Amino acid sequence: MQKLLVANWKMYKTREQAESWARSMIQALPPQGLSGRSVLVFPPATAIAAVAQVFSGHPSLSVGGQNFYPGTEGAFTGEISVEMLRDAGAQWVLAGHSERRHIMGEADALVAQKVLFALEHGLRVMLCIGETLEEREAGKLTEVLERQLGAVFSAAGKLDAASLAGRFAVAYEPVWAIGTGKVAGTAEVAEAHAVVRRLLESFAGESRIPVLYGGSVKPANAGAIVHLDNVDGLLVGGASLDPQSFLQIVSA
Ligand code: PGA
Q1: Do 116 and 109 meet the contact criterion of CB atoms below 8 Å apart?
Q2: Ligand 1 near 156 CB (within 6 A)
Q3: Which of 55, 77, 165, 202 is most buried, most CB within 10 Å of its CB?
Q4: What's this model's pTM, rounded to 2 decimal places?
């Protein structure tokens, strides 16, 4: 399976900064394009169109939205729709990121609703799941991952392998490793990814849904993680902001 290297910029970068980052990426690409790898960037909503424009014509580079409201249009002040994201050039959207779960208070049911809505309206979805330190220490890793994935799959009886092919990915991001500099060890990543893979097989009958790791990925640890069994890519926050650091991760 191709490895997917993902940059999540969170609430960073103006349009100009985003465009300059995207140009650095294009300039660093080998003339034949990336081999066995693809890059996906989640800019803030205001910079999606700028990045999509720079990336156009490069099939291994794509853009996504970090968030949206699950409705077609209407009186939802401050929100952005799937159609608007697509119009700006987004092909993907994030759902269930731990910052949205824990800072914005998005519960499993809303995350599930967003996943289904985006899939039904033509965006690919990267669903983020992961346990807090407290949950891990209480031995609840499997229980939490099963609850978070189960919420999505039970809300949508019809989400099976065929309907998800190429349109759905899962990012395992232990909450205690996001933005903390504390990366999960390779044994911890391997263990959690095996659990996610087993759960996806039982929920969707699918073993080929990409499962990415995220949480304090840096150039120094990317290689050890991305080559593990059951790791199909990396979701990178802080270390994706600098193009040179992200490029090192892309080629790790
Ligand atoms: P981080 O963020 O790489 O800064 O830990 C990862 C993420 O939030 O997706």
Answers
A1: no
A2: no
A3: 55
A4: 0.96
